UniProtKB/TrEMBL annotation:
Its EC number is 1.1.1.22. The active site is at C161. Residues 217-341 form the UDP-glucose/GDP-mannose dehydrogenase C-terminal domain. Pathway: Nucleotide-sugar biosynthesis; UDP-alpha-D-glucuronate biosynthesis; UDP-alpha-D-glucuronate from UDP-alpha-D-glucose: step 1/1. It comes from Trapa natans. The keyword Thylakoid does not apply. This is UDP-glucose 6-dehydrogenase. It catalyses: UDP-alpha-D-glucose + 2 NAD(+) + H2O = UDP-alpha-D-glucuronate + 2 NADH + 3 H(+). One of its GO terms (biological process) is polysaccharide biosynthetic process. It holds the Pfam family UDPG_MGDP_dh.
Amino acid sequence: MIADVSKSDKIVVEKSTVPVKTAEAIEKILTHNSKGIKYQILSNPEFLAEGTAIQDLFNPDRVLIGGRENPEGQKAVQALKNVYAHWVPEERILTTNLWSAELSKLAANAFLAQRISSVNAMSALCEATGADVTQVSHAVGKDSRIGPKFLNTSVGFGGSCFQKDILNLVYICECNGLAEVAEYWKQVIKINDYQKSRFVNRVVSSMFNTVSNKKIAVLGFAFKKDTGDTRETPAIDVCKGLLGDKARLSIYDPQVTEDQIQRDLTMNKFDWDHPLHLQPMSPTTVKQVSVVWDAYEAVNGARGLCILTEWDEFKTLDYQRIYDNMQKPAFVFDGRNIIDAEKLREIGFIVYSIGKPLDDWLKDMPAVV
């Protein structure tokens, strides 16, 4: 389409996160349709995060521009660099060859996902030994070589990028005969799936080894706060896991619509390798799910409460009111470690916080392996 309408030489900038060598494919297509017009292809991956995209645009950690290492390519790189230089300090604008720019975006997302899977793996060990993952991650993050970011444990990572980009990296490694490297990055996703299945198993085992026909409130469905995005959200797998044991779910998220939640839970995605053996909801199972627009309505009459997104409003809910309206014993399963577990225990809740020392009730009912 670009070739069809171009009447003068063009710089084509690739922004999307794409498989390495996509720029080369674009280059070949345009060259074969050039009609005498010259094209330069640049890779300029974006590093904007959902919820902070405008801030990330105006004050980026770095801007990455990759181009051909010849005079024409470097001239194109400089042209794009001049655009960013209007608001980005020059030392933050990095230039590389095409392939390095494309691979750097995949590598950055893989490294971030790896940190989350690493701390989530530690959370399982913390629960087994009585350590507190918050204290461990704080101590680890004080090492200047490691740093504190992306060391918060959770029920798992989601979003449109991490799993897709790691699988992309795995594919590239396998295509280049690097089986061991591919297996290494696969493990990041395996740990993420394990964390979700571990959470579901903890919920089921804590509630007398069954949630069949029990109402479970789910607070949060988006993959992270301040977005309505549900792509690859861990809430999908957790909800499907609970529905697999015939739980009745009442779901509340301040930004995700009922239609979106129903679509996510009914999509045909089945994977025997997944530890939960997830299946899409059947028409019968759909009746076990209700989506409400109030947190207190979601928990009314529930036996258990699962916090799956770290929305700020969940930190300030009236948990005494929630406890009074739940069936007893009342359980809270905090998949984001955002509540004060001790205060909730004083109210009367049985609380499970990922990676935190288990209370006596949970010790008596070990998680299913």
